[in-house]
Amino acid sequence: MRNSGNGDLNLHGEVRRAPTTRADNFEGAWEVKRGDLLWEDAESQFLRSRKLGIYGATRAVKPRTIEEYRWDLKQLFDFMKERGVNHYAQLSEKLVLDYIEHLQNKNWSIATQRKYLISLRAFLRWVERDPSCRGLESFVRFLPRIPKAVRKSFVPSVEHMEMFRAGFDRKVIWGLRDYTAVSFMLDTGARIGEVCNLEESDFKWEVCLVNLDGKTGERLVPFDRETTGHFFRNWMKARVQFAHPDCKKLFITRFGGACTPNTFLQSFADNLKRTGLSKILGDGTISCHTVRHYFCTMYLVNGGTLHGLQRITGHKNIETLMIYVHLANQINAIAKEHADASPLKQLTNREVLRESKRRRMVRF
């Protein structure tokens, strides 16, 4: 019999794969019959394709993205295993649609549902494009249209943002951690993933620059020595007694390991309720991304340039920043209009005028 190039054919025309290691290892192929693709093997080979940037991946992704894919697909695999579906060949149109309906019925936000659907689509497209999966149906055509993410136009006021930042109790070590993180983001516009990646060696104290490593690559960003530098020195002194010896990341959890974006996602949500801002502004209004959104807008409001902002935030496309230009222009225009039209200011000006007239009166 003819060899297919992917393994040896037996008398029944089935392909046998070479032995492989555990699913967590990216090396090697899986040992299954054609069509019997176990979820663990599928995860291993899919993540390998993302790591290498092949079979539907536009580029090689970073380790953090690999972990996000792993978590998102766990939702799919757990759902299928609960229904006795242990390998890909058992998948059907009905099961795929049932899973999508399951995502919609959970108490997850629209953004979380969208994230899981994007990972599902990437996984099914990999099945469609990987030659080793030839013969397996991808089910991509059954997926609903995934809408584009809606950009938030909400910008907290200066008072609300300061109220939010002050809500973290710096007398408690984890409050100090979160206060330092949000202060750093307000000073540098860093993404939360870049905050979690920070190490002590990233700080260039002599020139007040910090190296941020995120999804758009590395970049040097200035920070304020008097504020951000002071907060970080205090945090690093407190961090020593809780950090795991092998952990190099600056921000750590209660167990001594590195923080993830979910760590701050939860602490920000708790702080929103603790400060009472959830009742004033609504749940989820100040999140990790909102802080970065606030930085971009207020940087322009305070006189920063668009190109300077692009270099700081790491946006590759300057058109993405135009939303912040519009917001900054609106805020400045409203502030100018308010300064001229404020009824209180008009009354105050009349009082000042009357006082000045009284002072000019001379009694004999």
Describe what you observe in this structure:
By secondary structure, the protein is mostly helical. It has 14 helices and five strands. The strands form two sheets. The chain has a three-stranded antiparallel beta sheet. Helix 2 packs across helix 4. The N and C termini lie far apart (125 Å). The N terminus is likely disordered.
List the helices and strands and how they pair.
Layout: E1 8-9, E2 15-16, H1 39-52, H2 63-81, H3 93-105, H4 110-129, H5 158-166, H6 173-188, H7 192-196, E3 203-204, E4 209-214, E5 217-222, H8 225-239, H9 261-274, H10 277-280, H11 288-301, H12 306-313, H13 322-341, H14 343-360
Antiparallel strand pairs: 1-2, 3-4, 4-5
Helix pairs in contact: 1-2, 2-4, 6-8, 6-11, 11-13
Query: What is the N-to-C succession of helices and strands?
Result: EEHHHHHHHEEEHHHHHHH
Distance between the termini: 125 Å
* Beta-strand percent range: under 5%
Q: Which range best describes the helical content: under 10%, 10-25%, 25-40%, 40-55%, 55-70% or over 70%? A: 40-55%
Morphology = globular
Radius of gyration based on Cα positions: 27 Å
- Cross-sheet strand order for the largest sheet: 3-4-5
- Uncertain segments are 1-32
* Average pLDDT reading: 84
The structural class is mainly alpha
How many runs of DSSP E, i.e. beta strands?
A: 5
Discrete helix count: 14
Largest sheet: 3 strands, antiparallel
